[in-house]
Amino acid sequence: MSVGTQERRSLAGLFAAFQRIGRRINIVPYLFILPAVIIYGLFNLGPVLASMVLSFFKWELLTPTSQFVGLKHYLYILRDKLFWNALSHNVLFLSMAVIVPVGVGLFLAVFMAEIGKGRTVYRSLLFLPAIFSGVVIAYVWKWIYHPFSGILNQLLGAVGLDFLTMSWLGNSRIALVSTFVAYAWASYGYSMVIFLAGLQSIDREIYDAAIVDGVNFFQKLFLITVPLLRDVFTFVITLRILTAMGVFSVIFILTGGGPYYATDVIGVYIYRMIGNYEMGWASAAATINAIIIVTMSVLFMRLREREL
């Protein structure tokens, strides 16, 4: 038997195997998502993997050569007080983010579900801050917080509360809270829209039966609405974990991590390392932050599954 005949039979057998697999698995749906998977792999997953590999090398931005250093960058970061300071601010940001934007979003969603006329207008106006980029949000609040020409201090002075005026971004005791207000203003809209979608999936007959039984607004909220939105809460809080632990643009533009590292977060910490041309250290810090985010998200979802 010739070599060409063997090759043709091998190809025919391989083609037949693919046909059997294709009959068992419908590949048409996968073909539709294939372009998105390729784009995600090239522009999201690829850079993440490259950053993880780079974290094991000493590679300065202006130096063309690299040197394998193993876990040296990780050990340095875990001993760096500035890293733990930045991480503590991220965790504090996350704690406030779970309470404020989620709570405000739920309240506004319930409010709009109760009203009849003008719901679309209210929803559009309330969601408006969420459509702006983090850079725009930061510059708006930087103008609001300006110690001399800012609208916040001017309003306080106009109503006779001059003693409350201060440098909202220059005071180390209040700067982190000030940056969080800007973050929360831009974040509650997403929570509101997601909760509103969840509320629309709840059978109205449940609420009608509760009203007949004399249930008031707060009883209806905490005894009916919140329990029936368990899955929605899981999604919204997971989203807040991702955004709060990865916050960067708002804080970088408002304070740059200052004053005296009072608003420093891991994103700004990584940017500062890049500015020092220490790409290996920056990649290690980014990898540690990614591990923390994934771990927190997985643990939270596992706890929610056990509760269910």
The spatial strand order of the largest sheet comes to: 1-2
- The low-confidence runs, each spanning 5 or more residues with pLDDT under 50, are none
Distance between the termini: 64 Å
Biggest sheet statistics: 2 strands, antiparallel
Helix fraction by DSSP (H/I, runs of at least 4): over 70%
User: What's the SSE pattern?
Assistant: HHEEHHHHHHHHHHHH
CATH class identity of the largest domain: Mainly Alpha
Number of domains: 2
Tally of extended strands? Answer: 2
Within CATH, the superfamily of the largest domain carries the name MetI-like
Describe the structure.
The structure is a single chain. The chain has 308 residues and is mainly α. It has 2 domains: 3-54; 72-307, MetI-like fold. The chain is built from 14 helices and 2 strands; from the N terminus they run H-H-E-E-H-H-H-H-H-H-H-H-H-H-H-H. The protein has a two-stranded antiparallel sheet. The longest helix has 34 residues, at 81-114. The N and C termini lie far apart (64 Å). The mean pLDDT is 85.
